[in-house]
Design brief:
The protein contains six helices and no strands. α1 runs antiparallel to α6 and α2 runs parallel beside α6. 35% of the residues are buried. It starts with a helix and ends with a helix. The chain is mainly α and 178 residues long.
């Protein structure tokens, strides 16, 4: 159940990435399609979470806690890097779009940091992709493509999170029924 909860958190943040960052220069139709698809993706993970909760059977013996000390250390570092980094970027008078790229970068790195803590290297895959999308946005901020940073670092990061959470959620659901 802990894994499904982690997937649900990822899906919610993925949907937020898309809903907040789907904007101009995309046209209104594309923006609305992306936002609706993101909300449906998150809703599907929520439905899988509820289905898992209903099927959950108590197991004997101790279970590994995904949200233990290692998790808390990574999340604490992430919060400091996110908000501290945004303050530094503001002090350096970097364009607002830099913040989106910075958030994608830090969130990606935090997934990579979770891989050895959770002993689950599959989480490093979206972590690497988000990190690269963040780096791409940080580079793009200094180019004529600055208007596309929210799409590249925000929307695409959200799509990666949603695709991963729906995929791993679906695999978890079908593995239980097999």
């Amino acid at each position: 159940m802990q894994r499904m909860t982690g997937l649900l958190v990822g899906a919610v943040f993925g949907a937020v990435f898309v809903v907040v960052n789907a904007q101009s220069p995309l046209n209104t139709v594309a923006v609305n399609i992306l936002r609706v698809a993101a909300c449906l993706g998150a809703a599907s993970v929520l439905a899988m979470w509820f289905a898992s909760a209903r099927k959950e059977r108590p197991t004997a013996g101790p279970q590994r806690n995904m949200f233990g000390r290692g998790y808390l250390i990574v999340v604490f570092a992430e919060v400091i890097l996110l908000f501290g980094g945004i303050r530094v970027l503001t002090a350096w008078e970097r364009p607002e779009q830099t913040n989106v790229a910075w958030v994608a970068f830090v969130v990606g790195v935090h997934f990579i940091a979770f891989a050895p803590i959770w002993k689950d290297w599959s989480i490093a895959i979206p972590g690497v992709v988000l990190t690269l999308l963040g780096v791409a946005g940080l580079v793009m901020v200094s180019t004529a493509a600055i208007a596309w940073v929210p799409f590249v670092s925000g929307v695409l990061s959200g799509v990666v999170l949603l695709t991963g959470t729906v995929t791993f959620g679906w695999r978890a659901m079908t593995a239980r029924t097999a």
